[in-house]
Design brief:
Elements lengths: L1 H5 L5 H7 L3 H9 L6 H5 L3 H11 L2 H28 L1 H21 L6 H18 L10 H15 L6 H7 L3 H10 L2 H28 L1 H15 L1 H10 L4 H28 L1
Length: about 270
């Protein structure tokens, strides 16, 4: 998830969906209400500890957060190198990942009806319009970084919507990558606090939709994924000459990405 969230156009939520932890992730985040603060303020350490364990699934979050953090710190340079040096092949790989993810989500629908079709079309149109926006010029004050963290994290847990692409539109993507490279602790902490506040609020809405309108929500997310294909698609077209010799390596890499996700999904589905 951390590796995917670094890349504009690829969502960590997509990886969570493929590996079978998506519903658990959304529900676990939505359960955090900070009810453990009240007994702590009263000096009731036993009540604080019990409430803390009840609200936060540490067995789930500790390895997940560690994995995301390690990816952010170690792979940021690798991903940016690939995007700068081999943009066509890199985005072709992402293209294959996203298409495969949409196929996997489609397989999870029990039936197709007009509500699903409308929901998918709405998701596609909204996302396509969103990714067609031009990046805005913005300053990098701590308040702006805080707000950017709140907004971007909401996209990071949605399959198909890239939080890093949202940061790109907000004019904060390269700045935050540089903050990670240089370990600018103050800016990273402010961004993370904004992200925590944003994800706690948004996860409750998403959890409600998945519990009460699961298939319509999934259909909407399929449309979101298809709409987001414009990002890697445009990058591939802009990076290669439009002839078969130029496109062939891109097609091969996209097929590899597609196959990898299908194999991964089959493996994780088997493990579940």
């Amino acid at each position: 998830m951390g590796s995917a969230d670094i890349v504009p156009g690829v969502s960590g939520g997509t990886i969570a969906l493929i590996t079978g932890i998506y519903s658990h992730l959304v529900e676990a985040i939505s359960r955090i209400n900070f009810g453990f603060v009240k007994p702590l303020l009263k000096g009731d350490l036993g009540g604080f500890w019990n409430q803390l364990l009840d609200e936060i699934d540490f067995k789930f979050f500790i390895p997940l957060v560690l994995g995301i953090g390690v990816a952010f710190l170690t792979l940021a340079k690798v991903v940016t190198f690939c995007m700068d040096t081999y943009p066509a092949l890199t985005y072709s790989f992402f293209l294959g990942l996203i298409i495969a993810s949409a196929v996997i989500l489609f397989k999870k629908l029990n039936n197709i009806n007009i509500k699903h079709v409308i929901s998918a079309v709405v998701g596609l149109i909204l996302t396509y319009a969103f990714v067609s926006l031009n990046p805005i010029a913005a300053n990098h004050s701590l308040l702006i970084l805080f707000i950017s963290g709140m907004i971007a994290i909401c996209a990071m847990i949605l399959p198909g919507i890239s939080g890093s692409f949202l940061l790109l539109l907000l004019g904060q993507y390269k700045y935050m990558l540089n903050a990670l490279h240089t370990l600018n602790i103050v800016e990273i902490v402010v961004f993370v606090i904004g992200a925590l506040i944003g994800i706690l609020g948004f996860s409750k809405i998403l959890n409600f939709l998945l519990k009460n309108h699961e298939e319509v929500t999934m259909a909407f997310l399929i449309g979101v994924m298809l709409g987001s294909l414009k990002v890697p698609g445009v990058e591939v077209v802009n990076s290669v000459s439009m002839n078969f010799a130029g496109l062939l390596p891109c097609i091969i890499v996209a097929v590899i990405g597609f196959a990898l996700i299908i194999i991964l999904e089959t493996r994780f589905d088997y493990m579940e």
